[in-house]
Amino acid sequence: MKKADTVILVVSVGTMFTDTITTTIGAIEGRIAESYPEYEVRRAFTSRRIIEKLKENDGLKVESVHEALDKALCDGVKKLIIQPTHLLDGEEYAYIRQELAEYEGKFDTVILGKPLLTSPPDLKKIAHILVESSLLYDDGRTAICFVGHGSDGDSNDIYLKLQCRFWKMGYENHYVVTLKQKSDLNFRKNYQRIVLWPLMLTAGNHVRKDLAGTADSSWRKMLEKEGYEVLCIFDGLGQNPEIQKMYVEHVKAAIGEK
Questions:
Q1: For the whole model, what pTM was predicted?
Q2: I want to staple 209 with a disulfide (CB 3.0 to 4.6 A). Which of 31, 35, 99, 213 is the partner?
Q3: Can you list the alpha helix ranges (DSSP code H) found in the chain?
Q4: 162-219, pLDDT tens digit by residue?
Q5: What are the respective helix, strand and coil percentages of the chain, to the nearest 5?
């Protein structure tokens, strides 16, 4: 029997592609629900633009963080566990904390889980997951570029730390870059092929247009003009069962279970 006064709210930026919602965000929510059948798992997005587009284009209603918190209050929820699907402690995570500040004292207990890449063990785990996932392309003539969105401030250091982790593991052909670094791609040696691998939860507009798009400004077109063979991966991180498991572990840590 579910505990009616306890809810796990999974908060994501969101994506306008409903198929990707199912295979990434929905899959993570499903894994959390399987692990905690006694709790109701709910969804909220931080991007108001995405929420509006989903309603307009697909008739899909997704609550904002504010709406989800109001609903939890109306439903008599006493214990609220919030798990973000954000990769790092950037602007979107700060937005969640800001929203929660307005509800201080309105719930008996509010627990905010950590983003995916928070601690050294997180970085170690995801580095191993990404290496295992990319072994098929690791042929000595290919650079594997994991492309993140990027963030302002100190949180951007996470990308550098992940890069250092790859190199310490001996994978010098694995690169971590962000969308803001398009003009700063510097490879350690000459490669024939570049794999563009989204270091993002979902394979949305950034993947389909910025990385793999047909416009001359896309990463694929830019690299092809430089003479590289380019392969684009269209899977978001949320599709990987091992990464889904990491989010479950973050919920477990937030709740305080051993």
A1: 0.93
A2: 213
A3: 18-20, 26-35, 48-58, 65-74, 91-101, 120-134, 157-168, 205, 219-225, 241-255
A4: 999 999 999 999 999 988 766 566 676 789 999 999 999 998 888 888 898 889 889 9
A5: 45, 20, 35
